[in-house]
Hints:
Elements: H1 9-18, E1 24-28, H2 33-40, E2 48-52, H3 58-63, E3 68-71, H4 83-104, E4 109-112, H5 117-130, E5 139-141, H6 144-158, E6 170-172, E7 179-181, H7 194-205, H8 207-214, H9 223-240, E8 247-253, H10 260-267, E9 271-279, E10 282-286, H11 295-320
Parallel strand pairs: 1-2, 3-4, 4-5
Antiparallel strand pairs: 6-7, 8-9, 9-10
Helix pairs in contact: 1-9, 4-5, 5-11, 6-7
Amino acid sequence: VCGASGGIGQPLSLLLKASPLIDELSLFDVVGTPGVTADLSHISSVAKVTGFLKEDDGLHKALTGADVVVIPAGVPRKPGMTRDDLFNINAGIVRDLITGVAETCPKAFILIISNPVNSTVPIAAEVMKKAAVFDPKRLFGVTTLDVVRAETFVQELTGEKDPSKTIIPVIGGHSGETIVPLFSQAKPAVNIPADKLGPLVKRVQFGGDEVVQAKGGAGSATLSMAYAGYRFTESVIKAAKGEKGIIEPSYVYLPGVPGGDVIAKEVGVDFFSVPIELGPSGAESAQNILSSVSSEEKQLLEACKTGLKGSIDKGVEFITNSSGAK
């Protein structure tokens, strides 16, 4: 876990420590890692915990031998900070961490949580390409929080006791209007009254704002994001160990994933979230579910494509204009 001492990193590390699927949990951050490591190491579960700071080549030590690298690192937006300020800081952090991955464990599955995901995943891809170690099937933008929110919020209309039993594909990107929940394709089918659909979609798209407001501007969605990151990480590990039939939406480089090329041509962007069948090599196939979207969802998709294109270009340009990792 890179960024293990942060608001998402700590609860994410706790959930991963509790997972029986994980043998070794390696934590990295620029501050606080020894304390988080000592605390988690007292928990009586399988995973052996080690922690590293930046000093003494800590990043490379943390990444050595890693099968899965989860990256929640970055700074949250602070008062007075523009989106561009936030982008430049987090883009630099992701670039430097991925440079470490490219040098140390290029075959690991890379799971990116650091915002803005719409741009940080293209940044990671460009860094890996420059190092000639890019495997599109092993790079994932974690959009699972959008799926978790869709499952949870629709439950208020369906009354389903366990929200996670309803499967709702969420496609597109991972911010605001780029998030497209496909309630028309829910399994089992859900009947959403016409007057409730618009507000429900908006709530999934802007669920993060709800949490920021409830926390009085003092924080964002960290606990629910940690849960979503843990859920996706477990899915990747289960599939890597050979479990079949695991499908999770994720933001990937479509032309590099079997079945993704057709979708990329249809949506007009190369990075896009669709349901991905996971397996031992990562993203085994991208599922094209665009043909059965409703007319309302088609409109949402148009707004999504416009927003995504700019974010992807911004990520690619950041690396193109970047003078290499610090």
